[in-house]
Each structure stands twice: as structure tokens, then as C-alpha cells.
Design goal:
Length: 220
């Protein structure tokens, strides 16, 4: 879960609240509420879901925070580990599916993102090599993804907390036995503005259209 301010949370999902469309409106202590709540960038693939809360209110226990506008959007990803043996098959140039990058904890023009990920197996050892290119307001920044022998099913951290980009990466076994990687990232531009978003890469999969929904499950 990526929210405003310094909130970047990864971990196990003990509780999920979901609409008929598949949109997630509750993850553990985070809950999207309000009659005007809206979601966007919904993507659902067997064992994986992501999206973006764009309007409404987020409740975290007794605390409530605004969503959208000057408060910024919340991005989420939910990933499941299939009970299958992982196929150690190299896949190069895996294309991703993404949420739309938005400003952390503030308003500003939305960005765009592209990227690929190489999933390289050699002698039973996995290497993940790729990059995300984030663009907004005429600016461009590249976040490098580099991991050697990551633990499958566990979240690992990358980038530099003192640099311009950080990310959490979770590799899991997908329902086809191949590797799937979910990435929650933040990237700061030369202007000082930081953007955030979600990226997911799966070994040679083709992804469908992402849609926008209101909290009452109507498609916009």
C-alpha cells in the first residue's frame, strides 16, 4: 500500500474488503469509505490485484485521511503465492502493467510509466534485472531494479533511501508456475516532487484494459 506522506506499507493481508468488480476497498486497517469514493487503474489477474484510490476518505483505525486532490492518491497491490513448484525458466523483456503514477501526498499532474524486467535463472539462482521509466510534467527519471537471489514469497527492498528512488519488490509463484513480481515504488524528480505507483511483471503474459470505478461498483 502506497499512501500520502511517508506511508509505504508491505506485509501480509489478514483482511480484504472487495467489491463485485474485484476492486479492493479494504486491506487490513486501511479502508476506503465515503459516498464519493472512486477507484482507478483496476487490474485483476488470477492471484493478483492492483488499483488506485482516487477520491474519498481512508480510515485507519480511529484516524481518517482524505484521498485525492491536495491529499494525493493511494495505490495498492495484493499478490497471492500459488501452491505450485516454480518453473526456473528465464524470461527476458517481460512487460509490465502499472497504476498511473501520482504525486505523493499532494496534487499535481499524473505521470506515466513504462518498463521491462528480465527474470534470469542460472544454475538454480534467480537474478532480476530491469528498470522503470517515470515521466511527469516534461521530466523523466529512471529507477533501476536489481536483485540477486531474492527469496520467493518475501518482500525485498531496493533503491536508495538517500537517493531518488526506492521500491519494495515481492516475487511469487503465479498460477502457471512461472514467476510474478509486484513492485511498489517511489521516484523523486530533479524538481523535488516525488511520484509513486505500482508495477507488476509476469513471465510473458499479456494484460488487459484497466478501468475506473466508483465505490458503488459502477463503471465510469
Amino acid at each position: 500500500m502506497l499512501g500520502n506522506g511517508a506511508r509505504q506499507v508491505s506485509g501480509s493481508a489478514a483482511r480484504l474488503a472487495q467489491l463485485r468488480s474485484g476492486a479492493i476497498i479494504g486491506i487490513n486497517d486501511y479502508q476506503l469509505i465515503g459516498d464519493t469514493a472512486e477507484l482507478a487503474d483496476l487490474h485483476h489477474h488470477r492471484g493478483y490485484m492492483h488499483g488506485r484510490w482516487t477520491r474519498g476518505t481512508v480510515r485507519m483505525g480511529a484516524q481518517t485521511l482524505a484521498v485525492g486532490g491536495n491529499a494525493g492518491d493511494y495505490h495498492y497491490a495484493v499478490i497471492d503465492q500459488a501452491d505450485l513448484t516454480l518453473r526456473q525458466q528465464t524470461a527476458l523483456g517481460c512487460r509490465g502493467v502499472f497504476t498511473t503514477p501520482t504525486v505523493v501526498g499532494g496534487c499535481g499532474p499524473v505521470g506515466c510509466v513504462s518498463g521491462t524486467l528480465d527474470m534470469v535463472w542460472q544454475g538454480g539462482t534467480l537474478r532480476l534485472i530491469g528498470s522503470l521509466e517515470v515521466q511527469a510534467s516534461g521530466l523523466r527519471a529512471t529507477l533501476l531494479i536489481r536483485h540477486y537471489q531474492p527469496d520467493i514469497g518475501a518482500t525485498c527492498h531496493g533503491g536508495s533511501p538517500f537517493g531518488r528512488g526506492t521500491y519494495d519488490l515481492t516475487p511469487v509463484v503465479a498460477d502457471n508456475g512461472m514467476l510474478r513480481c509486484a513492485i511498489l515504488y517511489r521516484q523523486r524528480f530533479d524538481s523535488g516532487v516525488t511520484y509513486q505507483g505500482v508495477a507488476m511483471f509476469e513471465a510473458h503474459s499479456h494484460f488487459g484494459t484497466q478501468n475506473m470505478y466508483t465505490k458503488d461498483d459502477s463503471n465510469c
